[in-house]
């Protein structure tokens, strides 16, 4: 039996893509994931994640990564139609991964507050026969989802480093990071518009822009 796990990295950040990864292994290989020490990627150091990602890739039957750009996310969040809200977009992307992997069972980390509704949104987009297990904090419950979370996080970190090489050091990309907030303010002050790597629809990004506009108006 083929078992898949699907998880994301970067959902709540204001800079960079949302990365969704799927990992599939044979059922008898699941204990090997536990032996490797896979766990929620947020509980691991960057060095440990890199090492585990290489081991997971070797062990897996298939791995697949899809990325949602800031532009795609902005379009989903700004659109008023329910179908295109972010949870639906994430469910549709997870379904794409499951369709490509073709597992017997797929465990997913539920983005929706209602686990079963998220499962249904994925199920609606499936073209393969696969049972979907949708749970909150699935990356802490199921090792196969932990493996997917590690793959997603490593890829997200690589994307962030590439963006930093292009735009400069903006920190983690999360608004809790003062370096990220400072980057947004200074970029707006210099360029008048956010860079393409920024999720312009995110409330914190809008707030920084509003503050910048107010400051510019006062100076004017």
Write up what this structure looks like.
This protein is an alpha/beta fold and 220 residues long. It folds into two domains: 2-163, Nucleotidyltransferase, domain 5 (2-Layer Sandwich); 168-215, Ribonuclease hii. Domain 2 (Arc Repressor Mutant, subunit A). The protein is built from nine helices and five strands. It has helices at 30-36, 46-59, 70-78, 86-101, 115-124, 138-141, 143-167, 178-191, 203-219; strands at 2-9, 18-26, 62-68, 105-109, 131-135. It has a five-stranded mixed sheet, with helices on both faces. α4 (86-101) packs across α5 (115-124). The longest helix has 25 residues, at 143-167. It is globular and about 65 Å long. The mean pLDDT is 91.
For this entry, give a set of tags.
Arc Repressor Mutant, subunit A; single chain; alpha/beta; 9 helices; 220 residues; Nucleotidyltransferase, domain 5
DSSP summary: helix tally? 9
Rounded radius of gyration (Å): 19 Å
- Structural domain tally: 2
For the biggest sheet, the summary is: 5 strands, mixed
Distance between the termini: 67 Å
CATH H-level superfamily title of the largest domain: Ribonuclease H-like superfamily/Ribonuclease H
Q: Structural class of the secondary elements?
A: alpha/beta
* The CATH topology of the largest domain: Nucleotidyltransferase, domain 5
User: What global shape is seen?
Assistant: globular
CATH architecture of the largest domain: 2-Layer Sandwich
Average of the residue pLDDT scores: 91
- Please mark out the parts with pLDDT under 50 across 5 or more consecutive residues, or reply none: none
* Helix proportion: 40-55%
Spatial order of the strands forming the largest sheet? 3-2-1-4-5
Percent strand equals: 15-25%
Which series of helices and strands comes N to C? EEHHEHHEHEHHHH
- Got a strand count? 5
CATH class of the largest domain: Alpha Beta
